[in-house]
Amino acid sequence: MADKGSAFEGARIVGQRYVRAKSRENPDGRMPLMDHLRELRNRLLKAIIVIAIGMGIALYYSNPTIQWVIRPFCSATINGHSGCHIVGDSLVANGVFDPLFIRIKVAFFIALIVTCPVWLYQLWAFIAPGLYSREKRWAYMFTGTAVPLFVGGAFLAYYVMGRGLHYLLGLAPHGVLVLPSFDTYLGYFTGMLLGFGIAFELPLVLAMLNIAGILTHERFRKWRKALIFGVFVFAGMVNPSPDPWTMLIFGGLCVGLVEIAEVFVYFNDKRRARLNPDPYAGLADDELSPIDDVERVDADSSHS
Predict the structure, then answer these.
(1) C-alpha distances in angstroms, 300 versus 47, 195, 258, 272, 277?
(2) b/e 93-127 (16+ beta carbons within 10 angstroms → b)
(3) Do 82 and 163 fall within a single domain?
């Protein structure tokens, strides 16, 4: 037994040394093209299987999920009535197979949302080996921030889209029977969720542009008024309701997030300037630069 234990321990040590040697030989995790394709196939297969399982569960509970999707339509008051409790002004299915397709589409949409942590992880696991350690750190921050921001925007859209429906369907002239199809409503539903969710990603995009060195705080400060104006214009376009309060709430939240991004950009520029000081800073336009100091800075940076 002792011999077997020592043999097992020796094999384990040899395996660890082999892994460490391979890591030193290939620290960036690079692999040939065919291995990349196999890895992509395996990741896609896992994501598809998880989404298919999610669709199966959503189909089993299709009635509650469909009720959740159409709840904003039912909460909209159309011609003094609720959208789901009168003949006319209700969602309709025109074809024989439409009821089946409706359940499949809703199940796929719900499965895509619920299983997003899994397929996002598969996407990350495929991309991560090609990134350096610093890039991985920023990518973790991007992924960990993007999901809550998108969910927050989609959550807000779900609770305000009833106002938009009330306005849009209320534009029908008197005596005109409004019979929107479920496909039309589902397009509106997903468009609102995506529009609000993507709008909430704006501050994250600004922060990542600053990290990449494209957007500085000086440039951000010059564009602030135009950026805030554009945020409110986009809020008015995404929100079809003429209600000013909904647009102000949505635009105000987006502007608040943009201001948080500006604070990040400001401190990140300060940190970058402290680590890499500019030898020309503080000089007037007609003042000669100290050549010796500039050459000394360049020599120090080349040695480092």
Answers:
(1) 49, 49, 37, 17, 12
(2) eeeeeeeeebbebbbbbbbeebbeebbebbeeebe
(3) yes
In terms of residue numbers, what domain contains 152? Answer: 30-181
Coil vs helix vs strand at 190: helix
Provide the token pair at 153: 């925007």
My answer on whether 88 and 129 are in the same domain is yes
Q: Name residues whose C-beta falls within 8 Å of residue 102's C-beta, 6 or more positions apart in sequence.
A: 66, 93, 182, 183, 186
CB of 83 closer than 8 Å to CB of 73: yes
Query: Pick from 152, 181, 210: which residue ends a domain?
Result: 181
Amino acid at 88: G
**Which residue ranges in the chain fall short of pLDDT 70?**
1-33, 77-89, 128-132, 134-136, 139, 239-243, 277-304
* Residue matched to tokens 């969720």: 193
Per the listing, tokens 């009330």 go with: 166
- For residue 119, tell me if it sits in a domain: yes
What pLDDT does residue 209 have?
Answer: 83
Cα angle for residues 25, 29, 31 (degrees, 5° grid): 95
Ramachandran area for residue 213 (φ above 0: left; ψ -120 to 50: alpha; else beta): left
* Residues 216 and 101 both lie in one domain: no
pLDDT, tens digit, 9 for 90 and up, residues 200-244: 888 888 888 888 778 888 888 888 888 888 888 877 777 666 667
Is 295 a domain residue? no
Domain count for the chain:
2
> Model pTM greater than 0.90?
no
Q: Considering the domain boundaries, does residue 135 fall inside one?
A: yes
Residues 159 and 216 placed together within one structural domain of the fold: no
Do 208 and 160 sit in the same domain of this protein?
no
The rounded distance, in Å, linking the Cα atoms of 164 and 189 is: 11
Going by C-beta distance under 8 Å and a sequence separation of 6 or more, which residues neighbour residue 47?
118, 119, 122, 123
